[in-house]
Design brief:
- Strand 17 and strand 18 form a beta hairpin.
- This protein has eleven helices and 18 strands.
- The protein is globular.
- Strands 9, 12, 13, 14, 15, 16, 17 and 18 form an eight-stranded mixed beta sheet that branches.
- By secondary structure, the chain is α+β, with helices and mostly antiparallel strands.
Length: about 425
Amino acid sequence: MEIRVPEVGESVREALLATWFKKNGESVKKDEALCEIETDKITLDINADAAGVLSITVAEGTTIPVGTVIGSIDEQQAAVAVAVEPSAPVAAAPAAPVQPPAADPAAAPSSPAARREMREQGIDPASVVGTGKGGRITLDDLFSGIAEKSQQGAAAPIPAPDVPAVPAPPQGMAAASAPPAPAEAVGTVHSEEAPLYAAEREERRAMSPIRKRIAERLVAVRRETAMLTTFNEADLSHIMALRDKYRDHFQKRHGVKLGFMPFFVKACVEALREFPSVNASIDGDDIVYHHYYDIGIAVGGEKGLVVPILRNAERLHFHEVEQAIGGFSEKIKTNRLTISDLEGGTFTISNGGVYGSMLSTPILNPPQSGVLGMHAIQERPVVRDGQIVIRPMMFLALSYDHRIIDGREAVGFLKSVKEYIEDPEELLLEG
């Protein structure tokens, strides 16, 4: 049974074979994850369609066209193994060894990003317990290992360099006649060690297809749009009070936690109704106004930033927004995100606050003309009714394409989002 790179979309013509989860000649079970491939849009796993013995023909790190055969599964060898197993006294002749593809045999299954971090941090892969599919090591496993390592106390003292002992002078000879110690013996790096040290300071690797595509799109945005950013800030006191009041009831009724994102999704939908140009896009010499609201939610994954789409967000209730976002996160972790999850979108929301960002200028996701940036919530002194009070505040940023969105519309849109966030009762009545 041949293993081929599957077709994942009309625009995807090649893929990078990133990782083999199984070794050449190893037995595999049906539906077991065999390898991970990366395209310029998504990352996905290829599973075994049958049980048998794996034969690998394409090594990790190879870019191949869609439809290429990268290996096969011998179902007959699995059947023979099952038939021979009951007759334990009769030893079967060992099969000829199969040469595995060029790879580090001591390395535990891990993603390319995790392997790079382990090399940079000097961590032995055998010391990290992988919790990903097939026991592979994820970045979360690695960061947990680094945190535990940092708590183990001070590092062992570095031993002093070996200095050749100078023989004592013969008895009766003056100490001054003893030969001086070689100059290189004290604090000097041997010349043969210098090239190794220089090599460890740099590492060159090819861009992954996803990272290459991200780079191309970001450069294109700067070159092809007239991007501008306007800022405002919102008081999240009312939203936080509502979450505290209804948190347990919401989770018990819908099975998900109530976060901030549903409020911002609904606020953006209402503001887009008021300012339709922010929900529009340019197609040649035409402006296309969208009378639906497909909101992209920027999510940072192990391979890079992806933007899955909430279809018809104007029809979704709060719990449906949370469930959809949770589903996207699970798909990203298990490499089940499809191109259909990413296609389209009329507006995007990016939450840099989850990483601690205080303020930023988000970049447009073409052909969309607007993107809202959320940031970290911080308690700050503000003036309310002539009094200085402490409030949980968040900076908001709207980047927009100035070719079709005027400053008045951009400022009005962001001001509308701020008002809905600070007085969310109307959103609750709608959602």
